[in-house]
Every structure is written in structure tokens, then in C-alpha cells.
Amino acid sequence: MISYAFDYARPTTVEDALAQLDDDAKLLAGGHSLIPALKLRLSAPAKLVDIARIPALKGIRQDGNELVIGAATTHKEILSSDLIKEHLPMFAEGAALIGDPMIRYKGTIGGSIAHADPSADWPAMVIAAEGTVVVQSKSGTRSIAADDFFTGFYMTALEEGEIITEIRFPVPAEGTRMTYQKFTQPASRFAIVGCAAVRKPDGSARVAFTGVSDAAFRDTGVEEAVGDWSTAAIEAAAAKTAEGMELNVDHFASEAYRHHLARVYCKRALVAISE
Amino acid sequence: MKTTINGQEYKFDPRADESAIEVLRERKQLTGTKLVCGAGVCGACTVLVDGTPMTACLLPAHALEGKSVQTIEAHGPDQLHPVQKAFMAHDALQCGFCTPGFIIEAIAFYDSWRKEHGKKEPDRDEVALALSGHLCRCGAYVGIYKAVQRAVAGDFDEVSEIESPRVEALAKVTGQARYTADVHVPGMLTGRILGSKHAHARIVRIDISAAVAMEGVKAVVEMLEDKYKVARYVGQPLAAVAAISEEIAAEALEKITVEYEVLPFVDSLDEALKPGAALVYPESSKNPPNASEGPIPPGKWEGNLRKPYLNLMMTTWPGKARRIVKEAGQDENLVLVQRTYRTPGQTHTSLEPHCAVAHWQEGSLTVHVSTQTVAPLARELAKYYKLNREQVTVLSEYVGGAFGSKQGFTTETRAAVELSRVTKAPVKVVYDRMEEMTIGGYRPLTKSDFSIVADKQGNLKAMTGYFYGDCGVAVQSQCAPWVRFTYTGVPKDVKDFDVVTNAAFAKPFRAPSGPASFWVLESAMDELAHRLGKSPVALRRHWDDSTIRMPLYDWIESLPAWQKRGEAGASAGRFKTGIGVAIGNWFNIYFSQAKVEVATTPGGLVVRTAAQDMGNGLRSVVAKAVAEEFGVSPLTVDVQLGNSEYVEGPVSTGSRGTNSIYQPSVEAARKVKEKLLANAASTLGLKDPHWENGGIFHEKGFLPAAEVFRQLPAVSVVEKRGGNGLFDVLGMMPSGELGANIVPKMTGSVFMAQVEVDTLLGRVKVQKVWAGMANGKIVNPELAQSQVYGAVIQGMGYALYEERISDPATGTLLTVGMEDYRIPGIGDIPEIEVHFHEGGFESVKGEACGLSELSFLAVAPAIGNAVFNATGWRPTEIPMRPHRVLEGLSMALPQVQEAKSVEY
Ligand SMILES: Cc1cc2nc3c(=O)[nH]c(=O)nc-3n(C[C@H](O)[C@H](O)[C@H](O)COP(=O)(O)OP(=O)(O)OC[C@H]3O[C@@H](n4cnc5c(N)ncnc54)[C@H](O)[C@@H]3O)c2cc1C
Ligand code: FES
Ligand code: FES
Questions:
Q1: Confidence of residue B729 (pLDDT cuts 50, 70, 90)
Q2: Chain region(s) in chain B for CATH 3.30.365.10
Q3: Which CATH class is domain B595-722?
């Protein structure tokens, strides 16, 4: 378990990072997904561009009606932030369930969504909270709605030469409720099933899952069925979880078991925010 | 680039791809920080970076620029942190390989907790959350909880002197214990092994020319040991490379081209038995490796199945047994339980991987190796390489876990020696985690067809058991003996069959085959008791042929939890609790030739023996035996193990350590004392000298031990264990050496477990385990207790979590990382109550027998029986993973389906 040789650069600005980011280079943030992959020789970049210390990519702030989380902000920083606890409490709740303390100290939200592990926690939360992923490249900046960002098994809408700089979230209206519920794979601590759910003051819902299928996804079937949030409606909505989808199978959960868990965790999430 | 390491500025120029752990372990030789999984899962590599705990294995060296790093070495013997003292006092460690990582994290937790909560004691859940990124294979978690809680609460803030029940605790909590993985010899080369890519293939050609031509590559040797040149499992060693660095060695492996002629393979026991299955050994002469600690008896092959020829030892009236089982269905007065049981492959997962450093010089071979068998390995090496025994030295000072997987002349040692023989340089071979998980060893998988019959009055009538063991390409799973030797005196037909598959070979694992046997026997026994409407404890008492367990049955029956247990399936609601009991029965082994030398030097007492301590506490047993004779602290006794130059001690297998070494240590100490007293009279002219209270009392006063050793000439006594004068049976090592004596009287256990089953999600939580042990005298109670804790935890892993899984399409193992192979973590640990019933082995010298294996046996069936008691559903297959439990429950219990739709 030793990686191929590579070069290393630690730019201090996004522009520098972009300049360094040539075809054979890869960005390095917390390294908690990339370095294990390098050690298994699954990937052989010629250079790592370390963005973990770029000040512009770090931190959490409010910008008008939006909350902005820098891509290189760590799970730990997010779960400890007062702004997050106030406006996006689901993030504090969910980030605290990622891995163990050491993973939370190093791992970043940008790295997590860029890596797009089908069992990672952030993707479901970012979708449910209507995030917008802001990316920068040499040719400029663009924004990608979280709904369109996760395109498949470890695949995203990111293109070569793009850096995620931040993720923006609308500040939820007064009275919005949200939760993240997770059934943990006990060895790796990733999600076998994770459900992020938001209930807006008008009673509409946003529900997203991770771990269930090849990529995190928004489940409109559940959202539509939740109707008046009555016990019966929640029951019916949970039963619709991942309807018609192809589910992941691994040695920790068969397809049937995973589907069962997804329904249970969906229901749990909906009940938690139903009042 | 500049960084601060343990308070000192360090300037260096790292490679771009260098990681922080390489900087610490290789550049700085700060080997207290361990490398285990290399993937952020186990926490063994934890260091503080600017005060924050981080896994050094995933940290690029460059990320240390301008940072301050603190490793375990910052807290040396003179600057012990209260957390370290607490680890020592509460025996929060066994092999010690995980210990520095746990301690670093616990120190960070201590600081952050103190800031927020002062000296309030954190509860177990809080400690578990803080340490959730750490794994300990020895299962020292009970002590770890205690140590962290009490350290934070302030117990150790003011303490300066710490007595630990484990004599080497100080070396382990300070990271100073040097394991083989930490050995660094100047000029050392790195060796790496190339494994087969295919599960079954003829190796047509191996082209090493490109690898040999690489700069920095010093040797390439062939490793395939198959006379037909066939690789029979993925990862089977084909070649090995020695190079000046790990990177070059890794690159060289990729430059070796292997031409494979791919053959069909079978990757599971069921597949292997199907008609027309691909054959693992199609050749007429088969030479499978041995997965057991005994010799391979003759057998007959039919395809992938190997049948025993002779089974006289294992059967008693076999024909009658078969007839009773066959006719039981028609007989009103008989009750038959007949089922198929399955148990998984359990990977040893020692945190210190298999590793060796070999140095072949003109006329000598020195091998540092992480091994359980120091002395026999030296002999084996001498024989294999046609050297004199005196030319070979095997060294193994500390062993970071072994559990049965590190016996004899293993592959990593062969690679290191072969490479050193060619290069004449020292060569180090350390398995990476993937190799460790794939070829490092595992407990065989089993499938058993078992039947047991009793009459309505509860008299046991007959048993038949056909045990199919899957040891991969090896044979000898051997479940039948335990069934044969437990509940004896009735007709039995029990047989072991081997089914070979294209998987790496299994190895002995703590109580080899015992856990599978007792899973079957004790699950069936419990079911029979239930069907008869009898108390499972009372029925066992009735069947038991050994008196050794009787006091343990009394103890279990006195426990309120047992008395208050409900009817099977009576527990209501989603979370159902239940109680289960099971017994264990184990051979009682020692090594009559075991020797120990006790000597004095001007500095104090020294004890030497060519044995090893894998964390099970042999050092402390020896130290205590000697110290008590002299009335001094065991910490003042310098116990030197792990060197084949010393007089031969026992191997660390078969729970024979204490039984072999305790008594000769006491005897030798006694003789040394006598010599000292004689010398005190003759050379110092002391009158009436006698030993008391840690020194010599004489007519004119008192000479403390330290002075005795300083003033009197050095003396040395070698003492041999010898037999018990009883009918001891001789057993054999895999190498064919006589290495064991067996006491006719077996040791015994009775365990009880309390579980909570979540019938919605299928999770089983073990809430408490009561471990009743009868293995004679307990020499060192704290360490004995730690051993039992560890066995309960590993046994729980076996029952609930651990399972080797391979990809049926390729035969490649999927559970190759600690993120895929689930071993128990700190949050899983139940409350454990250990009860030793001492005595019963007065005829054994020293009266102390082994316990490490005995304490494993009954764990899984006690948990399974508790699951039955909770739910009314009888598990037959382990591990009882949630999806299996849920499937089983849904089939057995219609109300579970209902519960699913109403609860969340
Ligand atoms: C033992 C273990 C347990 C874990 N458990 C969990 C868990 O329970 N839940 C969970 O969700 N995750 C878990 N993780 C993953 C962890 O959270 C990772 O840290 C995270 O997924 C990736 O973040 P990173 O900052 O480490 O990214 P890196 O590993 O540095 O990078 C990952 C990928 O993202 C790219 N990248 C990084 N930053 C950017 C950027 N700004 N723009 C574009 N591309 C970028 C990199 O090039 C790389 O391809 C675990 C990891 C480990 C080792
Ligand atoms: S070795 Fe670094 S976490 Fe296991
Ligand atoms: S003491 Fe923890 S792994 Fe051995």
C-alpha cells in the first residue's frame, strides 16, 4: 500500500491553484478519500495541489439571504459553527455522524461532494438543503444546482480544471424544520442509508438519500406523498422510498434489507420534523 | 521545510509523495506511532498536530510544514501523562500495538473534557465517541474505558508511582516497546511480495528481467512453492523483490510480468461440493497446507472433498448413533434436533502485521520476526537452510498480536530470508494490510450437519455430526474432537471433512475449530432443552461428565439475571431481551521440556527463556512467580523473552504458556535463593541467614534484596518444567516436532449472555456477558481477567460481525481492509463479569492451566441462545448480522412484519 510518486504544491490562492491544476494534477483537500485511493494505486496523479490551507476556500458566512460554506471547510468546523446550528441544524447533526473525530478534523465538505462516494453523508444533505455548488476554472465561474451535481457512481457534474470554491444555501425561512438520519456501516462508518429531510413552513418537503443507490438523489416520490404530514401520509410517503430504483448491494446489506432500512430511516426523518 | 516534532525543530526535505508517518517512523525513528491499516480506520497512527489528533497515515509530510507534532515519545517514562498512568494501572492494554494511538487521542480528550467539564467523570458513551476512531484487536476496551474515565476524573493527576499488573506496561504506554515492525537495521533493504492475480492458474513463465534491471533493486526471488507451478488462490506469493526503498520495491513488483494459464476455480464450500466443480487439486499427488496445530491424519480424496479414513478416536458406537438418529422421528419417547449450522471465516487481524527482518551473513542467520514460536522456528530455519542450530538466532521481543496466525516458518519470513540470502544484506518484509487480511490467516469456515437425540426424561441418547471445514487450499478444520470430548458416554458418530477451495489457507485461531464446534453443539443442546421443557443449565449438569463445571453451574443459577429470565420469545415490543447459556471444554496442554533461567546480576534479578509474549502476559506471569519467591516487586525483575539463544521456553499456542512456565520459574527462583543464602553464609559470613520480606535476615540485621544481588557473586539456575507424573499424552507441532503434553483432565467454562434484539433493524446488542472459568489456579488475576475480556470481545465479533467475503466472479477477497472487515470497536463492548473458580487441578504442577482459548468457546453460542430466548427464533448461522437476523425473524415471527409497518 504505497502510492505512485507524485509532486506536491501548496498554493495560497484559488488563482494559483488553478494555475497549478494541469491535466495530470489532482486537488488535495482533507485527503481522507484521495490518499487511501492513491495508496491502493487506484489513481496516479503526477501532482497534488493542496488547497486545504487556502483562506478563500475556508469558513462559513452569511451573504444576504444565503449561507456560504467554503469548500475546504472541515466537517468539524461545520458542526461547531453557530451560524450552521442556527440556520442549518441538520448539517451540525449530520456532520457529527461522519466517521470519527479525526476524520471530522480533516475531511472537507468540498472534498466529500467532489469525491461523490455513494455512501457519503454530505451529498444527501446538500441536495435536501437546496445547495448550489460554485466552481471556478481558468475560464471563469459557474454554479451547479445540487440536484444536478451528483450524476452517478463517484461521478459529478464537475469538469476538468474546475475547483469547487463554495457551496451556497438559501437561508431557510423561519419555521423550517430539518433532520439527517443515518444507519451506519459499522466498520467504515459511512452511511448504509442516510436520509436528509426538510419541511418548509408551507408544508412542502425536500427529501434526499445517500447510500441507497449509485449516487445521492432527491426523492420526489416521497416529497409528493407526504401531503398533510399526517401519520398515514408519512407512512405512505416512507413506503414510496426509492420506488423503482436500482439499489446498492454489498456484504453489509442486501437489496431488500437496504430498502427496508431506507424506508425506516425515511419515516424516522419525516416523523422527526412532522410537528 | 520546517516542522516541530516533540518540541524540537526539525528541518527536512520530504519527497512530494511522502507521508507524515514515514517522516516519524523512518526519518525520525519515532516508532511509537504505529502503521496498521494505512487508511484512517484504526487510529494506531494517531499524533497531535497543533494539538489536534490526526491519523499520520493519511497526512502528507508537506502538510506538517510550520506545524507542531506531538507523538507518544513526548511522554516518556519521566513525563508520564495521567492518561498513561491510568492505562498502566487499569491494564488497558495487552499486546500494546494500538496503545500509543489510543493514548494520544485520550490525551486530547482529557484536555478538551477538562476545559469543558472539569473533573466530572465522562460516561462510557462519551468515552466511546471520543475513541471511536480506534480499534484494538486484543479487546483491551474494558480497561481503556476505565483508564480514560478515571484519568479524566483526576485519579492520576497527583500520582507518581504506578504499579501495573503488566510488567512491560511502561514500555508499551510510552511507545518504547520495539516490535518487529519497528526494527531498523543499518543498510536494511525492503522486501515486497508479488501475489497471484488469479484464483487458479498455471504459472507458465515469470519474467523478472525488467525488475532486476531497475536501479535500486537488489534481488528478485521466486516464491511459488507448488511442484506443479500452479497458483491456487488470489494473492498466493509468486515472487519477492528486495530494493533500497519501499517505493522502488513496489514499482519493481509491477515490472514483473507473469504469464498465467487461467484455470477454473471454486470460491466456496457449497460450490466446491457440486458435481463437476472445478478441482483445487486436480493432480494425483496433493500436498495441501495444514491449517491445524496437529499432524494431518490419512484421508481419501473425492474431488474437492477429503474424507477421514479412520475415525476410531472420534466415534463411540457410531452405527448405533446413526440408527438412533434415524429412528428418533418415529419414536414417541425421543426428541430429535437436527439442523445445518454455518460459521464464517474469521480473520485474525492482528494489528501488527506479519513481518520479519532477516540477515544472512557468512555463517549465521539472524531473524527478527513477529512470532508465537521463537524456539521451534529457530530449529525449523536451521533444518530448512541446512545450518547448525547455533548459527540461527530468532528474535521476537514484542509481538503485536498473533492469535494463532504467527506460528512456524511463515511466508513473510521465507521471503525475508530468501532475499537476504541472495543480497547478504538485512531485508525487512512487512505485510501491508491487504496482504495481512488476505494471506495472514483466518479461522476456517464450516458447515455442519448435526443431530442430537434425548429421551423425554432428558437423558442424552446419541449424536451425529458431520463437519465440513473450508480452510481454503488447506485441510484440517477439526471440529469433531470437541464434540467427541464433551457430553461423553453416549453413542456418537462425529466426523471431520475437508472441502478445499481456491482461497488462501486458514490457520489456527485462538481455540482452533472450538468456537465452531461449540456453536453447533451448544445451540443444538439449548434447542433440545427448550423442546424438552427443561432448564438448559440443569440439563447440562445432568449430561456433563466432568465435575469441573459444577461450581460454575451453581454460580450461573445463583445469578438474578438467570433466575429472572423469561420464556423464549416472551419479551414484548420492538426491542426484545433474552438470556442464553453455553459451555466450553478445552484441552489442557503444557510443554514438559519448557525451561527457564533465573539469574542474579549486580543490578538485580534476570529471568530468561526463549518464549514470547503476544500480549497475553507471559512476562508478567514469570516476573510474578519469581518476585513472589523473593518478596520483591515484579517490576524489579528483568524478564527477557523472545530470543532463541535463551533456554527453550514454551510456544504461545494452545494456552500452554502459564502451565508450562509458572512452576519452573518458582522452582528456579527458590534454588537461586538457596544458593544466595549459602553464599551469604560463606562469602559474607552472615549467621543464620534466611530470606524474608524482600531480603536476607541474619543474626546482625537485614540485607535488602538489592544489596544481596550487588554484594554476592552472580548465580544462575536453569529449571525444567517436566511432566506431571500422570498419563500425559504427547502432541505434535505442525513441523512434526513434539511440542505438547496433554493433561487428561480438561478445563471448563460456563458463559451466560444477555442480549437486546432490535426486531425492526435486526441489530443484536450484547448487554452483558458473565464468564465462568474453571482452569485451576489464577496466577495473575488482573491479566487473567484481561485475557477473558479479550476472548469475549473476539467471540462477540465472531458471533455478530466478522465474516470473510470474496468476490464469486474472481475469487478475490473483498474484506481486505478494516473498513470492510468489521471487528468490534469500543462502542460495542458489553459489561463483562468474570468469575474464576480456582482449584481442581492439584495434580498439575503449579496447579495453573491455560485460559486464553477456553474463554473464547462459549461466547457465540451463549449469544445465539440469548437471541433465541429473546425472540423465539433459533439462529443457526453466524455472524448474526442485522440482515440475517431480520430475515430469520421475519420468517419465524409474523408479528415482526407487523411491527415493521408501525414503528420507525
Ligand atoms: C475511515 C474513514 C471513514 C469515513 N467515514 C465517512 C462517513 O461516515 N461519512 C462520510 O461522508 N465520509 C466519510 N469519510 C470520508 C471523509 O469524510 C472524506 O474526508 C471526505 O469524503 C473527502 O473529503 P476530503 O477533504 O478528505 O477530500 P480529499 O480526499 O482531499 O479529496 C477527495 C476528492 O475530491 C477532490 N477535491 C477535493 N476538494 C475539491 C475541491 N474544492 N474542488 C474540486 N475537487 C476537490 C479531490 O481531488 C479528490 O478527488 C471517511 C473517510 C475515512 C478515511
Ligand atoms: S494506520 Fe492510520 S488509521 Fe490505521
Ligand atoms: S492491545 Fe490493542 S491491539 Fe493489542
A1: low
A2: 189-263+349-439, 299-348+446-507, 546-586+745-902, 595-722
A3: alpha beta
B421 close to B437: Cβ distance less than 8 angstroms: no
Q: What's the Cα-to-Cα distance from B289 to each of B301, B471, B504, B719, B808, rounded to whole Å? A: 15, 9, 10, 36, 23
Integer Cα distance of B710 and B639 in angstroms: 18
In the block, cell 455478530 appears at B800
What is B189-263+349-439's CATH topology? Aldehyde Oxidoreductase; domain 4 (3.30.365)
| Cβ-count burial A201-236 (b if 16+ within 10 Å, e if not) | eeeebbbbbbbbbbbbbbbebbbebbeebeeeebbe
For B498, the enclosing helix (H) or strand (E) is strand B492-499
* Ligand sitting nearest the alpha carbon of B94: 3
Query: Is B96 a pocket residue for ligand 3 (Cβ < 6 Å)?
Result: yes
Which one of B34, B37, B105 would you pick to mutate in the ligand 2 pocket, going by the greatest count of ligand atoms within 8 A of its CB?
B37
- The CATH 3.10.20.30 domain(s) of chain B lie at 2-176
The topology (CATH level 3) of B299-348+446-507 is: Aldehyde Oxidoreductase; domain 4 (3.30.365)
Q: How far is the CA of B140 from the centre of ligand 3 (A)?
A: 6
Residue by residue, DSSP assigns chain A as --PPP-EEE--SSHHHHHHH--TTEEEESS-TTHHHHHHTTS---SEEEE-TT-GGG--EEEETTEEEEETT-BHHHHHH-HHHHHH-HHHHHHHTTSS-HHHHHH-BHHHHHHHT-TT-SHHHHHHHTT-EEEEEETTEEEEEEHHHHEEETTEES--TT-EEEEEEEEPPPTT-EEEEEEEE-TTT--EEEEEEEEE-TTS-EEEEEESSSSS-EE-HHHHHHTTT--HHHHHHHHHTTTTTPPPP-BTTB-HHHHHHHHHHHHHHHHHHT--
- Domains contained in chain A, CATH given: 7-50 (3.30.43.10), 55-170 (3.30.465.10), 177-272 (3.30.390.50)
Nearest ligand 2 atom to the CA of B58 is 2
Contacts of A186 in chain B (CB under 8 A): 801, 822, 825, 828
CATH 3.10.20.30 fits B2-176, yes or no: yes
B881 to chain A: closest CA residue: A252
Is the pLDDT at B273 greater than 60? The verdict is yes
What is the distance between the alpha carbons of residues B374 and B739, in angstroms, rounded to a whole number? Answer: 13
Which is higher by pLDDT, B298 or B511? B511
Contacts B41 to A, Cβ<8 Å: 187-188
From B753's Cα to the closest Cα of chain A, the distance in A is: 22
* The amino acid at B556: I
- Cβ of residue B25 closer than 8 Å to a chain A Cβ: no
B660: number of Cβ within 10 Å: 32
Q: With contact defined as beta carbons under 8 Å apart, do B600 and B638 qualify? A: no
Q: Which ligand is nearest to the CA of B350?
A: 3
Class of domain B546-586+745-902: alpha beta
> pLDDT tens across A65-95, in order?
999 999 999 999 999 999 999 999 999 999 9
Q: Give the model confidence (pLDDT) of A201-249 as tens digits.
A: 999 999 999 999 999 999 999 999 999 999 999 999 999 999 999 999 9
pLDDT digits (tens, 9 = 90+) for B315-344: 788 999 999 999 998 999 999 999 999 999
Average pLDDT, chain B: 93
> How close is the Cα of B101 to the center of ligand 2, in Å?
9
- pLDDT band with cut points at 50, 70 and 90 for residue B736: very low
CA B727-B611-B792 angle, 5° bins: 80
pTM of the model: 0.96
Contact B49, B68 (CB under 8 A): yes
